[in-house]
Amino acid sequence: MTPPLLPEALPTVLVVDDEVRSQDAMRRTLDEDFTVFTASSADEARGLLQRQPVSVILCDQRMPGMTGVTFLKEVREQWPETVRIVISGYTDSEDIIAGINEAGIYQYILKPWAPDHLLDSVRNAVEAQTLQRQTSRLDLELRTSNRVLRQRTATQMAQARSSFGFDRIVRAPGSPLDLVCAMAERTARYDIPVLVLGESGTGKELLARAIHYASPRLTGPFVVENCAAIPDSLLESELFGHKRGAFTGAYEDHPGLFQRASGGTVFLDEIGETSPAFQVKLLRVLQEGEVRPVGGARPVPVDVRVIAATHRQLEQRVRDGLFREDLYYRIAGITITVPPLRERVADIPPIARQLVLDVAAELGHPGATLPDEAMACLVAYPWPGNIRELRNEIARALALHDGTRLDAAAFSSRVLQGRAAGGADDLTAAIPQSGTLGERLDVIEAMLLRETLLRHRWNKTRAAQELGLSRVGLRSKMQRFGLDKP
C-alpha cells in the first residue's frame, strides 16, 4: 500500500506584539496559510528565534524596553535571511523611515491594518525570501560551475596536449621527423595557413592535429575533411553548408564544416584532388573569411585556421593548370614536408612496437611482442604505403597468428621477401635488369630461400622438405648466399 503524501510544511511567521488582542487578530488572519508563532517582547522573540527558523517577522514598533526598528536591526545581524516587517501608527513613521535601511526592513504597515493587506504583505514577503534563496543558490551553483568548467577546460587542454602533442608522434632519436616537428611547433603559435606535403600514410593528419593543439586555437574544434572522398557537388555543401530547399533532399538548414569549426582549425586533406571550379569558391572563403551556404542569400562570417594536405606535387599541378596559383599561395603560408617511411628506416622499430600495442589492444591480443627476427623483416621492407600499410600488415599478422610472440612467419610473403607489392609482376620487378642469367637466377633463389626459412622460423629440416632439398644441400645454399639467422 502506498503511504499517503505528507503535507508540505507551511512558512513560519513570528508576530511580536505586547498586545495580546493584536497577536490574536494577526494569528487568525494568517493561520490558514502560515504557521504562526507569537511573542510579547523582544526577549521572548529572541529566545524563540534561537530555537525555531522563521521566514517572516511582524514586529510592532512600540514595545516595552525596545522599539521594533531597534529589535529588527538585531535580527538582521543574527538572522539575515528572515524577512522583516514593522507595524506602526502614523506617529512613528519618521522613526521607521529613518531605520529602514539600517534594519533592512522589507515593508512597514500602518495601523489600523486591513486583513487582506496584511495577508498579501506576508505572502509577498515569503515569496521574496524564496526568490532570494533561489538566487543565492543559483549564484553559488554558477560560481561553482564556472570554477569546475575552468578546471575541466584546463584538464582537457592538458590531456589534449598530452594525447596529440608533437611528443606523441612516434619516432627514433635523431629522426628526420625531429626537424619537421620543430618547424611545425614553431609554426603552430602563428595563425597562418599551413600546407603539409607527403605521401599517403605518412601521418600528415597527425601532424596537423599536433599543430592545432599547440596553437592558441586548441580550445576550439579540430575538424577534418577528405576532399578526395566527396564529389564537388556535395563537397561545397559539406564545407560551406546549405539552406533548406537549396536542392532535393535539403529539408533543413545545414551548417557547413567551416561554421562548425569556427574558432578552431579545419584540416583539408587531399586538397590537390579538388576541381578548379571548387578551388575558386574555396579561395573566396580564405580571402574574405566568410562562407556562402548553398542556396543562401547572405554570406556567413567564419573564424578558422586552415591546414591543407596533399600527396600531390602542387607546384607541378599549378604549372599544368590543374591547380589555381592564387589558391596555392593562399594555403601555402608555410609548407611542411613529411618524409616517407623508407627515408627514415630508424623510425620503423618504435612505430611498429607502438602499432603492435595499439592494434593488439583493439583485437584483444594484449601482450603481443615483436622479436628481433620479425623486426628485421619490417625494417628491410620499403613500405610504399608508409605507416598505413605497416599498420595493416601488423593487424593482419595479429589476426592470423596464434600466441603473443609475433614471429616473422606471421607476415605476408612480400614483407618476408623485402619487396613491395606490385601485382603479378612482383617477382619480375625484383630481378636485376642487368647481369647474366645465372646471376639473375641467384637473386630469385636467395629471395625464395630467405622467405621459406623465415616462414619456418629458420627450421632447416622443414624448409629443406618444402624446397625438396636435403639439409646438407640447404645449408650449402645458405652459405653460398650468406643467409644466416638474424
UniProtKB/TrEMBL annotation:
Query: Which of UniProt's keywords are assigned here?
Result: ATP-binding, DNA-binding, Nucleotide-binding, Phosphoprotein, Transcription, Transcription regulation
Positions carrying 4-aspartylphosphate: D60
Question: Response regulatory domain: from which residue to which, for each copy?
Answer: 12-126
A GO molecular function term, named singly, is:
sequence-specific DNA binding
Q: Which InterPro entries match?
A: AAA+_ATPase (IPR003593), AAA_lid_NorR (IPR058031), CheY-like_superfamily (IPR011006), Homeodomain-like_sf (IPR009057), HTH_Fis (IPR002197), P-loop_NTPase (IPR027417), Sig_transdc_resp-reg_receiver (IPR001789), Sigma_54_int (IPR002078)
Q: Where is the Sigma-54 factor interaction domain?
A: 170-399
Has UniProt tagged this entry with the keyword Cell membrane?
no
The record's annotation in SUPFAM superfamilies points to: CheY-like, Homeodomain-like, P-loop containing nucleoside triphosphate hydrolases
Listed Pfam families: AAA_lid_14 (PF25601), HTH_8 (PF02954), Response_reg (PF00072), Sigma54_activat (PF00158)
Please name the GO terms of the biological process aspect recorded for this protein, alphabetically: phosphorelay signal transduction system; regulation of DNA-templated transcription
Kindly provide the name given to this protein in its UniProt entry.
Answer: Two component, sigma54 specific, Fis family transcriptional regulator
Originating species: Hydrogenophaga taeniospiralis CCUG 15921
